[in-house]
């Protein structure tokens, strides 16, 4: 994969992360959405981020969405930062 495609993929993944984090924050407006979003966010985390990072992210994402009041944590964006910025160093 060339550098331009990698940049596009990273950018696309970041935008998806923002979108999924925004969906998670909808529970402040409509709390019952957490019953659907908590397991779905875990599934999406495993699909977007492979390996142990995705598995740990899925558990954290599920807990964050399942526990009332923690939906403000941008778990998808934090995993993206870990994978694409912190882990590279």
What does this structure look like?
By secondary structure, this protein is an all-alpha fold. The chain has one domain. The protein has helices at 3-25, 34-48, 51-66, 75-86. The longest helix is centred in the N-terminal third of the chain and has 23 residues, at 3-25. It is globular and about 40 Å long. The relative contact order is 0.17. The model has no long low-confidence stretch (mean pLDDT 88).
The largest sheet is: none
Morphology call: globular
- Count the E strands: 0
User: What's the overall average pLDDT, rounded?
Assistant: 88
Which residue ranges are poorly predicted, with pLDDT under 50 across at least 5 consecutive positions? none
Number of helices: 4
How much of the sequence lies in strands comes to under 5%
What is the count of distinct domains? 1
| First-to-last CA distance | 21 Å
Structural class: mainly alpha
Radius of gyration: 13 Å
Helix content: over 70%
Spell the H/E element sequence: HHHH
């Amino acid at each position: 994969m060339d550098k331009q495609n990698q940049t596009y993929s990273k950018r696309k993944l970041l935008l998806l992360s923002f979108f999924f984090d925004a969906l998670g924050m909808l529970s402040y407006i409509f709390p019952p959405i957490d019953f659907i979003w908590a397991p779905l966010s875990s599934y999406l985390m495993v699909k977007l981020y492979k390996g142990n990072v995705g598995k740990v992210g899925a558990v954290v994402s599920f807990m964050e969405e399942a526990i009332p009041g923690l939906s403000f944590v941008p778990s998808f964006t934090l995993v993206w930062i870990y994978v694409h910025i912190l882990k590279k160093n």
